[in-house]
Amino acid sequence: MGGAGLAGLAAASPAASARALQAPPLEVLDLKASAAVAPIGLEDQAVRLSWRLQSPDRGVQQTRYEIQAASTRELLEAGTPDLWHAGEVLTDQSMDVSWLGSPLKSRQVIWWRVLIRDNKGRRATSASSRFEMGLLQPSDWRAKWIAAETEMAHADRQAGLLWMRGDRPADKSDRFFRLSFNLPSAADVTLFSIANFDAEIWLDGKTLERPHHPSISFGVAPIAETRHRLNAGRHVVAFRVKDPAAFNEPKFFEIAAAAMIRADLGGGRVVRITSRGMKTALHAPKGWEQPGFSDARWTNAEVSKNQPQAWPGYGAFLLRKDFAVARPIAHARLYATALGVYEAQINGKRVGDALLSPESTDFRKTALYQVHDVTDLLTTGDNAIGAMVGDGWYGSYHAPAGRYAFGDAPLRFFAQLEITYVDGARETVVTDDSWRLTEAPVTKGEIYYGEDYDARLEKAGWAAPGFDAAGWRGVDIAPTPPCVLKAQISPPLRRIETLNARSITKVGSHYVLDYGQNFSGWSRLKVKGRAGQAVTLKFAEVLQADGHVDQSNLRAARAALVYTLKGDPAGETYEPRFTYFGFRYVEVEGFEEAMGRAPTVDDIEGVVVSSNLIETGHLRVANPVIHGLWRNTLWSQRSNFFGVPTDCPQRDERLGWTGDANVFWDAAAFNMDVAAFTERFMGDVRDAQGPRGEFPDYAPAGWQELGLGASPGWADGGVILPWTAWQRYGDTAVVDQNWAAMSRYLGFILEHNPDLIWRNQRGYDFGDWVALDAVNPGDETTPKALIATAMWKHSVDAMAEMALGSGRRPEAVRYRDLARRITAAFQREFVRPDGSMGNGSQAGYILALRFGLVPDSQRAAATGHLVADIRRRGTLLSTGFLGTPYSLDALADNDQDSLVYDLLLRTDFPSWGYMIRKDATTIWERWNGDVGDVAMNSFNHYALGAVTGFVFRRIAGIEPIKAGFLTFRFDPVLDARVPRGGGDYDSILGRITTDWELKPDGGFDLHLVVPTNSRAEVRLPARSADSVRENGRPLSQTDGVVVRGMDGDRLVLEVGSGDYRFLSRA
Questions:
Q1: CATH fold of 141-148+313-446, please?
Q2: Pick from 260, 953, 259, 271: nearest CA to 619
Q3: pLDDT tens per residue, range 615-632
Q4: The pLDDT of residue 932
Q5: Which one of 80, 371, 515, 1010 has the fewest CB atoms closer than 10 angstroms to its CB?
């Protein structure tokens, strides 16, 4: 650091400029702060900066950089930076550069640029970029949380949903509850009833209708809201609650039930009766559910404080406020979030294009707020701001915890509009008791349920100035939730593509659309008809034999839209706001009745919705099965990277399962830029971490069975995700942010397993989930202690690498030693002298071989056992979620290239090709998805597609060696059945391109592009260095290529950045 610096470049002399024009160009591009281009709302004082170099020349490396930063663009470009101007740093580092300028403040805009010099003595300056800070201090917030609920719902909530409990009997038998109440006169009654396990519920001896909730559903039934006309006198609500003989979280230490009766006695008199006075027993005679039964000898149930306030949905709400803008505006920002989901408008125009915001988090701990530049939406004079607020991730049923899994009702909105005038003054418009509220046209909208929308209830211009809101009521100030507000920096959910149906088929009186692709999102409906007519859309992944959609695998998810027309003669267009679906097919009812004709592809378009991550990888492999595997995996990633990395997008689950993410992140980080997405999700994982260090099975977690331990392969995602992100992007911020949590997790395992075999505290212990031989998904087809110990070793290895890469050398030594000791313990426990291990399962061999747990002297024998079992089964895998992702690497590591391709190219069951042959357009949850148990049978589940990472690394030949692709390896696994391959990957340093061809005579051609500031180790099939040409020249006459020698049948080269064309002749 220091010296004359690079600043003189900005004012170079005419002679210097002429020389620069004669030299090959050198550019500095893609300036990023916290892994994003020009982000708004950063909160970290140590913002990490990165950029990339671009030059057509070979062997170009940065030798030094200088960062300049200023409070205005004018100061920066005048060469007088006032925030950071520390001079040169002599390094090739162009990523993971921490902010070392002036301390950053709330709302501050930072303009910055980078000046670099390369190893050829050339200089370059980036264009100016910017980033903006969010609200860094609690005192910056002046807004209040306002409630989004009706007066009736408010009164219900004030009365309270009082849960009453009884202990769980030792024999796991049923428990019975009775609530008797008296009505002074006949009344219209609304009854709310719920239990924390499966239950039968009666009113006056008659069975109550329960919400749609098949027995295969994930989690217990949601609250029931039923309406009755009751006479004066005595009545009883009776519950029979069934103990499932499982679960150990405090919520489930008890059996509990709750009821509330809202009785409208007429004349404006409304009485609310709560569960207080409920009786309970473990045994009940015949007739116990009748009003005349005497429960005098039953025990008084106790009040429970462990259960959620699981109120039913009331639809969505409109909130608004008028305000004035006094004079010309320089800029304006809207900081907004909700407990629920919101869609904001200013002056009748939608704010931003993000969907379903705020995205899913544990709202007890963290709520993401969004920062919007709304300068162009405001005008001098009268203005209005509004928001539509619905259940979203906070209020919707969230399996397995139920509604309001992350806190109590009501839904809430929180917003702060900050207007900065040209003269520098700032004015703030906030949510407070001056806002007004009414019900929205969305009469019901939940994530799993879908949405009901009555367009007749629309209020034109409701968020525009001058709207008459006289009939709206004032809002209530809601309790402030305990969560921390955190700006969302990861890309939001957006519409990313529109699909047209490939076919439309009439089935009975309905129409079924096939989009030809399974995806996440919804359909956009365009319709014209009479007011009051309704069109229903039902979504599904597959069809029944009769051609109707098959929703049986969706479990409790209704997955439908019901749109009621308002009768606009110009036609109506509708998309939902508070739900989404995973589907390929849509069944349409009511369209023909409204339009007088069948729907066309333009009437019902498919809208693809996903976290708007940049897609960074593309494969080119001359085989339809391998290409189809990648394509299906990419679509499963698009479908399931939905705020958090969900397991599936369609059924009553859609949770951020850490096991699926753990094995898939290698592939994910090739397909898309997951840097910010990883940082965001790891915040959820840390929020769900147990007090002893256990990482969760899924996050955000509405409830976790804390005390059981950590599930091997699932909890390890808390280590492997940061490790993968650090490998790909070279950014140690993700290591630093998670170091303490990762250390606690690995310390937890060691504390409970001092003999270094992970026997204890294994949580749900899923094992090699959905392995082929399993009768039930979690059956022990491979010894679970073997799997657990192998995954532990993998995490410890990753921790050692991250420690070294982030400057924690003592920790690196300690974790390397622990890995060595775990390896020795594993070999003593599981590996036999003949190389066999465990119970001989494929997964056992795969994990041991891939994670370095087999002695070198026994690797060949262990590989032989694995190969023999694969061949014995007809050259087929038997593995599940933990064995499959590492299978191809384990084989390729041990010279089984032909078998790798045998498995990849198969199209019979079980194989990836079988899914493709069965017309799959995404990856299935199970190998036998076409015949599997509908209780757990998703057709859009990326875990088994994790081998796509192998295809990028070891068939396309793009394998990282040093973090951030400072060095990568080209060493493809080859087979004559696939003569061509390659791909593109947009690394943080630039695009890597590989295109290779294996000639029939054994020759080999390679086109390789190495990005500037990177190097590649190239392993070419060759007889010798003399048999290889680069651009027609011998290697000895080629610039930028260093010959390292032969390694078996591969010639090892080292090359710097540039464009290379190698020809190796047999």
A1: Jelly Rolls (2.60.120)
A2: 953
A3: 999 999 999 999 999 999
A4: 65
A5: 80
The reply to whether domains 7-136 and 161-303 share a CATH topology is no
Q: Could you tell me the maximum CA-CA distance found in the chain, to the nearest angstrom?
A: 105
CA distance 882 to 847: 8
Q: Are 93 and 962 in contact (CB under 8 A)?
A: no
Polymer length in residues for the chain: 1066
* pLDDT tens per residue across span 150-192: 999 999 989 988 999 998 877 778 999 999 999 999 999 999 9
The structural domains of the chain, with segments of one domain joined by +, span 7-136, 141-148+313-446, 161-303, 493-611, 617-954, 959-1064
The residue with tokens 């997951």 is 674
Kind of pairing, strands 317-325 and 302-303? unpaired
What does the alpha-carbon distance between residue 617 and residue 958 come to, in Å, rounded to a whole number? 10
pLDDT score recorded for residue 705: 61
Render pLDDT for 961-972 as a digit per residue (tens, 0 to 9).
999 999 999 999
Confidence of residue 252 (pLDDT cuts 50, 70, 90): low
DSSP string, 805-822: HTT-HHHHHHHHHHHHHH
- 617-954 is classed CATH 1.50.10.10: yes
DSSP three-state, residue 728: helix
pLDDT in tens, 995-1004: 999 999 999 9
> Which residues lie across from 587 on neighbouring strands?
512, 538
pLDDT value at 14 more than 70: no
d(CA 479, CA 360) in angstroms, rounded, equals: 20
Residues 453 and 564: beta-carbon distance below 8 Å = yes
Query: 429 has which bridge partners?
Result: 417
Q: Give the span between the Cα atoms of 235 and 237, in whole angstroms.
A: 7
What is the CATH architecture of 7-136? Answer: Sandwich (2.60)
What CATH number was assigned to the domain covering residues 493-611? 2.60.120.260
Angstrom CA distances, 833 to 84, 828, 855, stand at 63, 10, 10
Is 359 one of the annotated active-site residues of the chain? no
Cα 618–chain centre separation: 21
Task: List beta partners, residue 49.
Answer: 33, 97
Topology given in CATH for the domain delimited by 161-303:
Jelly Rolls (2.60.120)
Contact 604, 592 (CB under 8 A): no
Sign of dihedral through CA atoms 528, 534, 540, 544? negative
Catalytic status, residue 925: yes
Whether the full predicted model's pTM is greater than 0.85, yes or no, is yes
Measure the CA–CA gap between 332 and 426, rounded to whole angstroms: 9
Of 40, 60, 5, residue with least CA distance to 989: 60
Mention every residue, 6+ apart, whose C-beta is less than 8 A from residue 740: none
CA pair distance 1019, 1026, nearest whole angstrom: 15
By the 8 A CB rule, do 484 and 365 touch?
yes
How many angstroms separate the CA atoms of 32 and 112, rounded?
10
Which is nearest to 525 in space by CA: 458, 571, 582?
A: 571
Residue 436: helix, strand or coil by DSSP?
strand
Q: Per residue in 16-44, pLDDT tens? A: 444 444 545 999 999 999 999 999 999 99
Q: Does residue 826 register a pLDDT over 50? A: yes
Q: What gap in Å lies between CA 189 and CA 230, rounded to an integer?
A: 7
Rounded to 5 degrees, what are φ and ψ at 176? -115, 140
DSSP state letter for 301: P
Catalytic residue among 343, 575, 653, 801: 653
In single-letter form, the type of residue at position 111 comes to: W
The catalytically annotated residue of 289, 541, 694, 925 is 925
**Can you tell me whether residue 269 is helix, strand or coil?**
strand
DSSP string, 387-434: EEEE-HHHHS-BTTTBTTTTSPSPEEEEEEEEEEETTS-EEEEE-STT
Handedness of CA 81, 82, 83, 87 (dihedral sign): positive
Where do we find the tokens 């580092």? 93
Residue in the block written with tokens 């703030």: 428
845 and 826 in contact (C-beta within 8 Å)? no
